[in-house]
Each structure stands twice: as C-alpha cells, then as structure tokens.
Amino acid sequence: MDFPKGFIWGAATAAYQIEGAAQEDGRGPGIWDTFCRIPGKIKNGDTGDIACDHYHRLDEDLGLIAGLVPNYRFSISWPRVLPEGRGRVNEPGLDFYDRLVDGLLARNVTPWVTLFHWDLPQALQDRGGWANRDILGWFSDYAELMARRLGDRVNNWIILNEPSVYSWMGHGVGINAPGLADRDGFLQCVHHMNMAVGQTYRALKSENAAFRIGSAYTLMPVRGERPDTNPENVALMDAFWNGHFYDPLLKGTYPEITASYLAPFIREGDMNIVRADLDFVGIQHYDAIEVRRNSAYIFDTFFGDKPAHTPKTAMGWSIDPSNFYECLTGFKKRYGDIPLIVTENGIALEDSIDSNGQCPDPRRIDFLRDYIGTLARAMKDGVNVRGYFVWSLMDNFEWGEGYRPRFGLIHVDYARDRRRTPKSSYEWYATLVKTGKIAMTNNI
Ligand code: FCB
User: Fold this and answer.
1) Which of 44, 99, 129, 294 has the most Cβ atoms closer than 10 angstroms to its Cβ?
2) Could you tell me the distance, in angstroms and rounded to a whole number, from the CA of residue 265 to the centre of ligand 1?
C-alpha cells in the first residue's frame, strides 16, 4: 500500500503530558496541577510535575524527533507563557517554545502547534474557565500572542484539542480537570469552545493568510451497548463526542437532540462565528463508544461495557480497525469532502525494556500497520485525508490513568532518570515515513 507524495507524516505530544518543569521559570499553575493534587483523581497519585522532563531534555528529544518524522505536533502550555492566564507575559516560557521551534526547523522538522491541549491556567478556571463567556477574550489574546511570537516560523496551527473530551469529561462528568459535573457548565463550555475555534481561525488568518489552520476533534462511532439500548442515549452520546463540534463547524447548527438545551447560551450572530471553513479538520480516533443509560451522570448517559470479542489495549479500548474505516467514510457521508488530517491515533501497551536493553513492541507495529492500512483503504475509497500523526512520540502522562499506559514509540524509563529507548515501532514507523509504503512484515 502506497501513500501519495506530500502526505504529511508526523508524531504528536502535548505540553502537560511531557514537559514537566511545572514550577520552573515562572510557569503558573494550571488546572491539571490542581486536579492531580486531589486524592483519588489520578491513578497511583501520579502528577505531571516532572513528566518526561522534556523541558530539560529538549536537545536529546529534538534528535529523536528528527530521526522519526518530518512533522511534529506539540502544544503550548498556556500557564507557562501567561502564568495568570492573561496580562503578564512570562518571557522564559516563550523562550522555551522559541528554542523548540528553532530546534525543529534546524533539523528540517515542520512544527504543528496546538494552542489548547487542556491545560488551562488555574487563574482562569477560578473565574469559571471555559464555562465563562469571557474566555473568548482571554483565548484570543493568548492565541494572538503565540501567533505573533512564533508566526514567523510556524505555519501550521491546531486551535483546540478534543473539545468533546474537555467539555464532557471535565465539565460534564468530572473525570478530567477541572473536575466539574454540571449540565449548564458543560453546555456553556461546548458552545464557547466552538466560538473560540471560529473566532481564532479568522483572527489568525487575518494575521497571516498563508497560515494553515485547523482544530482537532475526536471521531468515534457511537453505538448502544446492547441492541435494546435506548436510542436517545445513543444520540446524546453521539452529540457529546461528535455532533456538538462537527455540526456547528460544518453546518452551522447544533444536533437536534441538544439544541434546545444549548439555546439559552447562544447569542445573536454566534452561529455565524462557529461555522468556519478551516484549512483542515483534525480527527483523532482510538475506539468506538458503547452507551448505557446511567442516571448517575448528566443526561442519564454514560459509557457501557466494551464488547467481549475485541482484543483490548492497556486502556481497555477495543482494537478494531473497522471502527476507523466506519468513522472516516461515515464522516464523508455526513459532512462532505472536507480535507482531513489524522492528528492522533495510537495504542497504549505496557511495554518494558528487555534484558538486551531493547524495547520490542510487536503489538504496536501490528496496530499501526492495521490502522494505517485502513486509512489507506478509506483514502482509496475517496476520503480526503492529507496526513497522519501517531500518538505519541514518547510514553507520557496519560491524564487520569497516570504513567502506566504507554503510548510512545519511544520508551521512557520513569525509574531511571527518564531514559529514552526507541521501541521497535520507532524503526518501523520511521521506515514507513521515509518510503510511504507499509512494510508488511515486522522488522523487529
Ligand atoms: C487523546 C488526547 C491525548 C492522549 C490520547 C491517548 O484523547 O488528546 O492527549 O491522551 O487521547
């Protein structure tokens, strides 16, 4: 299977998950710093305080990135550059991203900057965070600061990462930071995130018309846990994960099932702002969602059990590439021929270093071969996909799951000075990226 010339191959990370240096060089507190300190919220009591210590190991990591991919997606830590979220700028924080971008460019790696990958400054959360409409002003000031600082060297921008997970897990059911479970706050958060995308897209385009600007969204098939699952619960969950974001962006409407609940928070003119023709839509796929009615959660809707027959990752997620095919082709049917980039896809395993000091991960190679092969098939069948970023460059802090699930193509030994060891999938993916061809045998 061959990929077209010019296909964008990359690897992705996010600031809070890898940087560490949480209290250094003037970085302010973010909502994940706060959340990690609430007992019981993060498995094993893990925090992102040190994470992969990427902040201090930048040079080594730049070399590893350059050996793997020509495109690297990372996020800016908002509290590192604006410790109170707005107002006072932290120069050492900006310097770090200058060094990162310059280091990538010096090694012929193209930077892709995510502006918001969940680590909101705590000072803004204290004012309601994304549930407060004032965030539109706070976010646009922050986005412009970054575009002005890096825009002479960075051309590719991803405005938000997975507003579905942020709004529902963070404001709806309280599993992620900021840990709230409140129906109105959740709906406000959804609408304000959509507003931020439309608004920022236009602002950055007027800053520089050549910028390539998108935003990244989950794309998950949603189905009932059982054949008799109430269709209303399925439609609600599909709205929370898919429709709440793709519908306003691409059709200028909210899904029928939640439109009346969102209505009180929508002002005149808003729907013209949320509707935007981004240069690309970033899609992130890991799994399908099985739905169960559950009155302990907002809208009485929550996850059900996974099907028994699928093999599972270390996250307990199903390995089933047909879900990916269904998403990609279903998206085209639902929204038309939109340019897509897969901004995340990958697998968590519990990889370890063997007695030879190697980290073989044949299951990851199998996963990538099957999912990337499926992507090639969907493209052959007419889905307009321009690129693929693997999640993740290296093992990292997996939010509420802590450090146990390992998503990286590079192993990080947390017990031994966070030593990096490229796994066998690193070599496999580097070969794919260089040749544009999927090797059908494991080279481990
Ligand atoms: C996505 C997140 C990313 C990572 C992967 C496994 O939802 O965007 O930060 O945690 O899942």
Assistant:
1) 129
2) 28
Indicate if 344 belongs to the active site: yes
Give the number of the atom of ligand 1 that is nearest the alpha carbon of residue 161.
Answer: 8
Q: Are 73 and 13 in contact (CB under 8 A)?
A: yes
- Determine contact, residues 130/189, Cβ cutoff 8 Å: yes
Q: Record the pTM.
A: 0.98
**Ligand 1 close to Cβ of residue 168 (< 6 A):** no
Token pair for 93: 């924080």
* pLDDT tens column, 38-57: 999 999 999 999 999 999 99
What fold, for 8-435? TIM Barrel (3.20.20)
Question: What are the domain boundaries of the chain?
Answer: 8-435
Query: Residues near 18 by Cβ (< 8 Å), separated by ≥ 6?
Result: 51, 52, 54, 393, 394, 396, 397
Cα separations (Å) of 6 from 3, 177, 278, 316, 374?
9, 38, 20, 35, 19
344-387: pLDDT as tens digits? 999 999 999 999 999 999 999 999 999 999 999 999 999 999 99
